[in-house]
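Summary for the steering committee. One of the milestones for this cycle was to obtain a three-dimensional model of the protein with N-(5'-phosphopyridoxyl)-D-alanine bound, which we needed before selecting residues for the alanine scan. The sequence and ligand used are listed below.
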Amino acid sequence: MSRIVYVNGEYVPEQEAKVSVFDRGFLMADAVYEVTSVLDGKLVDFDGHAKRLQRSMDALDMASPVTMDELLAIHRELITRNDLEEGGVYLQVTRGAPPDRDFAFPDPEQVPSGLVLFTFAKKLAQSAAAEKGIKVISIEDQRWGRRDIKTVQLLYPSMGKMMAKAAGADDAWMVEDGAVTEGTSNNAYIVKGNTIITRALSNDILAGITRAALLRFANEAQMKVEERNFTIDEAKSADEAFISSATTFVHPVVEVDGVQIGTGKPGSVAQRLREIYIEESRKAAV
Ligand code: PDD
């Protein structure tokens, strides 16, 4: 069965989906996106993703192509049409396709925003990475200064992934002024004793929707949370480390720059948070 995707108002088989060569997402990376996970055929934290999408669009003065209610309906329709049980929905809003290439933004009255969504199947609740943990390397953070906006400018994060692969690792943690910002496509955490440490929100990192839920669950479970900068050296001597995102939930980190973290096995705090996250997400999914 061929995947059904959504492109600018239409549901079409993926082979028939078309976007203009003048689309600003394609030419200028002038587009924002969201990835919402799906468990049991339902959306995890749709509200959080919809709010962050609105924030990204507002920050870039980009008009929303549909209302948030319509967006939810499109997500659900795609899940149904593709029979998706577990995985996610990728969504992208672009500033649309003006008649020609131009650095200036087009008038939104004349050029409507573009909207593309597609589903992907992925095992989320059970994964080898969750059981074994992942290895990360550190790299310099060379991205632009508004990482709080979820744009499709993903070239440097892709390069980071390739650097990690070349080093025999799974992902890269980016470092700026001596402190870890985040992973290539996830938020980064270390654990010392009973305290979870993760960088505070600012323009330097993406405000992860999974991060927000995890910090809430951690507080409810009486775990201590410190939102502050940490260094790679601190990570190397931490008891545990982990990452979070919509496509990984929580993955323990067992090695940083070749140095084993804690026992070298997934830590109990990361495992517990992952379990709570999956349980609570299943309950609240829509
Ligand atoms: N990435 N930081 C960055 C740079 C990210 O790209 C992501 C998500 C996160 C975690 O955010 P959330 O918990 O809302 O997924 C943090 C998505 C999954 C992606 O690019 O595929």
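Key point for the committee: The chain is about 30% helix and 30% strand.
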